[in-house]
Amino acid sequence: MRVPWKGVLRLAWPVLLQQWLVLAVALSDRLLAGRFQSELSRDDQAATQAAQTTAYYLSWFLSSAAVLVNSGAAAVVAHRIGAKKLQEANQILHQSLMLALAVGLFVTVSISLLLVPFLLLLQLEPETVHYASRYLLAQLPALPLHLVAAAGIACLAGAGDTRTGMWIFGGEAIINLPLAWAGFWLLGFPGIAAGTAVAQALGGVAVVLLLWRGRYGLQLRWEELRPNTKLLREMFAISIPSALDSLSTQAGHLFFLAQINTLGKTAAAAHGIALGWEAMGYLTGAAFGTAAMTLVGQARGAGRPEEAARAGWTALGLGALAMSFMGVVFFTLSESMFRLFCPHPTQSDIVEQGAPVLQLVAFGMPALAASMILVQALRGAADARTPLVFTWLGFFGVRIPLTWLLIHNGWGLWGAWLAMNVDMHVRGLCLILRWASGAWQRRMMGVRVG
């Protein structure tokens, strides 16, 4: 009998290390903007940090484009591997790479043309729009190659190989650190993003070269780079609901950010720093979610629904335990964590607003674990539509209206994060009940596959 926790940890730890290296880059970027721009006025310091917050939100929004490719590709590749159909898994790799490149080019051109009007819709102050637009325009050119890399890594993860993603994205993060610092000293604030763009482009090239050599039975061949409508339809059956779920989540985040921006630059800066630290939990959940999707998808291909159920519960238990430990860190060290990015006396108001919300989110870590991990498990089981309903309920039925109510009644940034916590608990509970119901198992075994 298989031991589920060993399989979960085998797949999760490389992704977790990869995610934490990416987080180190984000925290380093925050450090550059927060500690090494003392020559700027107090308003400009807050504006650059608020601009980084907006850039991160838009990066998450653009990740919806990656989900359109990655979730379907990873789930269908996992199914084919479980069913021992390696040739079809390799065909899916080619479909996902072509789709990633097309989506990346379309999104890059569209966002570049509409960036400033879009930023203005987020109710940013003029100084923040100025800094955010320069920052994002420096990073956007690398998006197509970044999506190609993400698609290739997603297919390998579906095949059971999460270590390659660790080496590629981890190496990309390590290269990113000196590039961002060099870019900052040469070009100023936008140079941070330029360093990220160069590192992401190199990561994309590395993935293409690796797949050209072949890995885990997946190998890039030029003659197979042609559309296959049958496989694309199967991928889209999972990826379109998943992308809508991700897009809805990111749209909800942007509505949420727009309401926080009404509180001013200081609140936006504090919000962004708190999010940067909260990502320690979020990215951990993403790592265990990747393990859950792979194991559930492979169990689906092998026709073993009971094994899929055990894998989902095991991934949730381990992920929730790790994220709860991080919640203890957030609660006990929140002020010190903020002081790292806000050492100057002029930034004390950012610390005063931000440290309490980081303490608050500590209590939401188990619910966030359920929201992150079980969504991926359901996608692996080909039940991608249910999480979309829960996302709409949580964001647009709970978080957005409750945030508006609390902000307009004087609760400020803490009230917004309280609304976020309520949303996480609602969605987490809904997903736990869905997984426990077993309805996804009947759907999983009833899905027709090629």
Detailed description of the structure:
The protein has 450 residues and is mainly α. The chain is built from 15 helices and no strands. It has one domain. Helix 3 packs parallel to helix 8, helix 9 runs parallel beside helix 12 and helix 11 runs parallel beside helix 14 (412-437). It is globular and about 60 Å long. The model has no long low-confidence stretch (mean pLDDT 84).
Based on the model shown, name its key terms:
globular, mainly alpha, 450 residues
Q: What gyration radius follows from the Cα positions, in whole Å?
A: 21 Å
> How many independent structural domains?
1
Structure annotation, total helices: 15
- Along the chain, the helix and strand elements come as HHHHHHHHHHHHHHH
Give the termini distance in whole angstroms.
Answer: 29 Å
Given as residue ranges, the uncertain stretches (5+ residues, pLDDT < 50) are: none
Q: What does the main sheet amount to?
A: none
Question: Care to count the β-strands?
Answer: 0
Shape descriptor reads globular
Mean pLDDT: 84
Beta-strand portion reads under 5%
Global structural class: mainly alpha
* Helix share, percent: over 70%
SSE layout:
Layout (H helix, E strand, L loop, with lengths): L3 H32 L6 H41 L3 H36 L4 H14 L3 H16 L4 H25 L1 H25 L15 H33 L3 H38 L2 H35 L8 H14 L3 H16 L4 H23 L4 H26 L1 H8 L4
Provide a quick synopsis of the model.
By secondary structure, the chain is mainly alpha-helical. The chain has one domain (4-446).
